[in-house]
Amino acid sequence: MTDMHLIPVPQLRTAMRAVVQGFGSSQAEVQAVATNLIDANLTGHDSHGIGMLPRYAEAFLQGGLRANAHVSTLVDAGAMLRLDGNAGFGQVIGAEAMALGIARAQASGSCIVALGNSHHLGRIGAWAEQAAAAGLVSLHFVNVISRAIVAPHGGADARFGTNPFCAGLPLSGRDPVILDFATSMIAQGKTRVALNKGELAPPDCLIDDQGRPTREPRYAVIPPFGALLTFGAHKGFGMALMCELLGGALAAGMTQRDDASAQRRVLNGMFSVLVDPAMLADRSAFEAEALAFLDWVKASPAREGFGPVAVAGEPERASRARRLVEGVPVDATTWQEILGAAAKLGVDPAAVQAAAGLGG
């Protein structure tokens, strides 16, 4: 197993802002990208955190990621918006798309936001959290245009991406319920993290390049490629299809249909539905019923080998609280990849190392 660095959050923020400046980004974009990536690490989703920067650097240098790009409106039908992300940083594009949709939903009760051509949107839960902070329920169906990494149920090779689904529900005076998951057994980034840590992938998540079960994460990261499997067999496969059809075909006008292994960019389409629950029912009655159900579910006694019942969003908040105090763990391999990306972007790796509080 590889060595680990435990980096305090303030130092990590400074170091990652230094790296992102290498893209030529505005200060606002530097702040948005670095903050979003570190937030993913804080919530325990290292697969969507700072370890993505090497991939972003490669995409940028190939021309597949554009710095300082913003959302363009293609269709404005009041409570329906179709937006183009212009291959910009998803951390900026996602926030701008949600802000537009939130304003419309607050005015009319609901809004459908069809976003296409955004570079990697990161942890989709961030956009459900943005909507929940505005008092809105949201649903998000996302497709991925990159090298195919997930096999269809019963298939022996990869045909689509990890195609995440997310839903968020706000509760006054309480933390929101945020459900956010890849339709594959594990996120592709988790195989990168496992490979860098020298760990095996969980059982029944992967097949190798011959379609045989394997726990070696390399088959999802380096050639010869195998594939991830969908969660829940045909059920996860069906949901992945709907994410591709809604987030890809409908929202983005672009679906995964080729290998694209030479391109390092990661494009996302996202079909989002935003709803103001106060427009449907008495908000206090809705929240009282929701809280009563959540309390009822959480009162279930823990089964042997398990901790207390937790609902969606709670594990992420627990991870955030812990890592804010203890620091963010980053394996040595991933850290060296980040320093390598900094060098490619014209940023002094030694300065990044020093900003993180790590020795030479």
CATH class of the largest domain: Alpha Beta
- Amino-to-carboxy terminus distance: 22 Å
Described by the principal axes of the CA atoms, the overall outline is: globular
**Biggest sheet, in brief?**
7 strands, mixed
Q: What is the share of helical residues?
A: 40-55%
Name given to the CATH homologous superfamily of the largest domain: Malate/L-lactate/L-sulpholactate dehydrogenase, NADPH binding domain
Radius of gyration: 20 Å
Number of strands: 12
Notes on the protein architecture:
This protein is of the alpha+beta class. The protein has two domains: 1-68 and 327-360, Orthogonal Bundle (Hypothetical Oxidoreductase Yiak, Chain: A, domain 1), CATH 1.10.1530; 70-184 and 230-324, Ribosomal Protein S8, Chain: A, domain 1 (2-Layer Sandwich). The protein has helices at residues 9-20, 27-42, 53-62, 90-108, 125-133, 188-197, 234-252, 283-298, 314-326, 332-344, 349-355; strands at residues 4-7, 72-76, 80-84, 110-119, 137-145, 165-171, 174-181, 206-207, 213-214, 227-228, 267-275, 328-331. It is built from eleven helices and twelve strands. Helix 3 runs parallel beside helix 10 (332-344).
List keywords for this structure.
seven-stranded mixed beta sheet; 360 residues; alpha+beta; 12 strands; Hypothetical Oxidoreductase Yiak, Chain: A, domain 1; 2 domains; 11 helices
Element layout with pairings:
Elements: E1 4-7, H1 9-20, H2 27-42, H3 53-62, E2 72-76, E3 80-84, H4 90-108, E4 110-119, H5 125-133, E5 137-145, E6 165-171, E7 174-181, H6 188-197, E8 206-207, E9 213-214, E10 227-228, H7 234-252, E11 267-275, H8 283-298, H9 314-326, E12 328-331, H10 332-344, H11 349-355
Helix pairs in contact: 1-2, 1-11, 3-10, 10-11
